[in-house]
Amino acid sequence: MRKSSVSAQLTRTARRFSTVIAPQLTKLDPVPVLQKHQTLLIRIADISKLQEAIKQYVLHNGRLFDPVEFEIRADDDAGVGLPLLTAQFYAEEIVLFEGTKRLLSISLSDPSEQDIMQRFNTSASVAKSMEDGPVLAKVRHPISGIKMFELIQISQRRPERWHITGSMDELSKCDIQAHSNIWRQVLSACGFVFAAEWWSVQSEGVRIAQICPQKAVCEENSLRLEWSDFANNELRLLTLCFGLVQTVREAFPSLMHIVKEHRQRKMNIHHAPQGVGSP
């Protein structure tokens, strides 16, 4: 009886503990600063850090380089003072910070990477992801590392389209579509902007945000994010995550090359055949 009583008590304690702790490990904290600004700018903090990262990646076989930092600022602050948020790029992920507080991490992938994975893994989950479309990024909880959201590309033809789904409730949070016109295509061809497209974000059929590449003349590539009053905090945060993904993929593609090479090396090591005579 005593053993049963102790076991029951431990079970009840564990349930109460999980009820209190689990939500903190499976839900992202709101970011109030996003509600205070309608327009934000994502830009690289120090271009020399990017150049050094590429140099160190080549010299040290992808093992050693300081993180490349991006600043998220109000569009009208002229770069004065501390940024609202910062994001640090590593070979494995992008980490978003508010001051020293870690808000979330973003794991980047590539459509071609999933083709490679399918050769080694024929599980139902991999097959399902291939049916739904390639997963370009996963937003993870800053402490538990649990996958919170997925950025899925649903069309690679022009115009490209994506959606972001919640991993907990499996509901679509927002849809994203690329746009372009002849004027932007001309500017891109002449090197005045780094991308011919801009991207709109919709939720339940209502446009709630827009992401535009900024001019690349006399300054480093950057992205401008603009929200409508209909965008709640979660949608603003997801828009920012997409903006960070596009910053790496489109504004600074050399970083995406580091991601691809790092993943390819890990796969080669993991799936390398054992040598003859090896134990």
From TrEMBL:
Please, which domain of life does this record's source organism belong to?
A: Eukaryota
The name this protein carries in UniProt is Uncharacterized protein
